[in-house]
């Protein structure tokens, strides 16, 4: 509804991923599933994400990436941890950063917002919202 901001859109998409994952884990648990869903934050990784930004940002990234950014391999380590670590066996609904469970933004725990996103996602994809039968 306001002017477009690439950073704002990126942040909003990341929040949506967290909200969606928490709702998915809630539904999996309610159905008695052994499948788990977790959020993995890789941190700031030196990838082509900044490929289409202004040249000033590209120069700043080029000058600081070696100091502040993770390599793609380092960025993948938390995803690998979530997938194969014995500590994560059976653990769902976690937010992981640097191979540790941590707290996500407070808004991500808003269950009504999680439900609204889930319902809207089902509508937009044409999938039946079976979660309506789950409290």
Summarize the structure.
This protein has 135 residues and is mostly helical. It has helices at 6-30, 55-68, 72-84, 111-125, and strands at residues 39-41, 95-97, 100-102.
Overall average pLDDT:
88
Strand content: 5-15%
Shape descriptor reads flat
Please mark out the parts with pLDDT under 50 across 5 or more consecutive residues, or reply none: none
- Supply the helix-strand structural class: mainly alpha
| Biggest sheet descriptor | 3 strands, mixed
Family: Belongs to the short-chain dehydrogenases/reductases (SDR) family.
Keywords: Oxidoreductase
GO molecular function: oxidoreductase activity
Protein name: Dehydrogenase/reductase SDR family member on chromosome X
Describe this structure in words.
There is one protein chain. The model has no long low-confidence stretch (mean pLDDT 88). The protein has a single domain, classed as Rossmann fold, CATH 3.40.50.720. The chain is mostly helical and 135 residues long. It has a 3-stranded mixed sheet with strand order 1-2-3. It has helices at residues 6-30, 55-68, 72-84, 111-125, and strands at residues 39-41, 95-97, 100-102.
